[in-house]
Amino acid sequence: MIKFSTDFIWGTATSAYQIEGAHNADGKGPSIWDSFCTIPNRIKNNENGNVGIDHYHRYKEDVALLKSQGFKAYRFSISWARIMPEGKGKVNEEGIAFYSNLIDELIKNDIVPWVTLYHWDLPLALEMENDGWLNPNIASYFEDYVKICFERFGDRVKNWITLNEPWVVAILGYGQGVFAPGRSSNSEPYLAAHHLILAHAKAVKLYKTSFTHQKGTIGITNNCDWREPLTDKPADIEAAERALLFFLGWFADPIYFGDYPQVMKDRLGDRLPKFTEDEKELIKNSSDFFGLNHYTTMYAAEDDHSGIKSSVYGNGGISEDQDVILTQDEAWPLTAFNWSVVPWGCYKLLEWISKRYNNPDIYITENGFACNDTLENGEVNDLERLDYYRQYLEACNEAIENGIKLKGYFAWSLFDNFEWASGYSVRFGINYIDYKTLKRTPKASALWFKKIIKNNGW
Ligand code: PNW
């Protein structure tokens, strides 16, 4: 029997650009994703989030769905360009009204809002006029924007996440160029990441100094896969550890210890920016909880440069900086996204985080499964997804039983939605979207969640 404690937080998650649509409605300014999607061939089938799943207009129906499926918490993100169309300066009251209404609707239905302040949709003006995350001033622009959010929503929102997955912003946006703003470089990811960390820390400092009366918590969400040593050779064990430090330690070490992992400093030299002593103080202990997005696992082996070279930028970071070769096991089931299903990897990652960062409160803010669902006789029988959730939650439960302070879990995602460079071709939702009518249909996995949340387990 699997039982979670009664105060375990059961949630599900989305992000603004992936679901809202209404890309230019009611005074919203363009974001880098609006613009990235107009470049031919960057997105599968040249799709975009202009309409999304029209959550902007259907939010009441969507909150009712959340409620009917038993979720206690809902993680969504605020579109910066809806609040500040030019990224700075003027505030758009209609944008404020949308999120304010959404928050009220959630609270009315006893669903606790968990709000991500940045889920990749940077206002376009900041990119074009100020070089986006490459400009150190971005940290103060971000601070000005979050201040508005704390002022306008902080009376009702008590759970804030500053940034979603800065690793993705840095590596996929500035390293591989497959996500907005579409740049390819082997040094810009480290610079962008540096400013992302500082922006996070400034936002937290502001919240902790000027908004203590709101009595909320604030943290950051990082993503990380597990890296399992391919063999028990010391070189491979070290390679796996190094891969984790380049992936998660890159962001979590500054936040828990005040500085980057030594192995990154050793290997990157001048490409890794340095924090000043004041900045280290600012960043250290700047997260009330450890937000984790976790999906998959890979083997890691030392790259001795004798043979196979994966791509220059392997999944996990800039691989030439790490000398790590990543592979998958043929025995591991694959999702439609080619991510392997490895529940024990989730357990091992939770354990690694707890050990390295001194047993923090952890929230899994995303975990989920991609497949090509089809609607048959009005139903979606996504048993593979259901199985994925069951196995990963079993791993979570085991972690909790062994003293790891995992306090909550958010399924990614509440809906099928715009899956970034993959467009609408990949489905992650527990609720199915018919993209012609935008009708929402609960999948078997959503009905399963409803049952297990009610029983706190199964
Ligand atoms: C996350 N990777 O993105 C995001 O937070 C979601 O918006 C997204 O829909 C979800 O996971 C599924 O993709 C990621 O390459 C994108 O390792 C890419 C990676 C990880 C997470």
From TrEMBL:
It holds the Pfam family Glyco_hydro_1. It is an enzyme of class 3 (hydrolase). One of its GO terms (molecular function) is beta-glucosidase activity. GO terms for biological process: cellulose catabolic process. PROSITE patterns: GLYCOSYL_HYDROL_F1_1, GLYCOSYL_HYDROL_F1_2. The active site is at E165 (proton donor), E366 (nucleophile). The keyword Hydrolase applies. Its EC number is 3.2.1.21. The keyword Hydrolase applies. It catalyses: Hydrolysis of terminal, non-reducing beta-D-glucosyl residues with release of beta-D-glucose. Keywords: Carbohydrate metabolism, Cellulose degradation, Glycosidase, Hydrolase, Polysaccharide degradation. Gene3D superfamilies: Glycosidases (3.20.20.80). Substrate binds at Q18, H119, N164, Y295, W412, E419, W420. It comes from the Bacteria. NCBIfam families: BGL. Belongs to the glycosyl hydrolase 1 family. This is Beta-glucosidase. It comes from Flaviramulus basaltis. The lineage of its organism: Bacteria, Pseudomonadati, Bacteroidota, Flavobacteriia, Flavobacteriales.
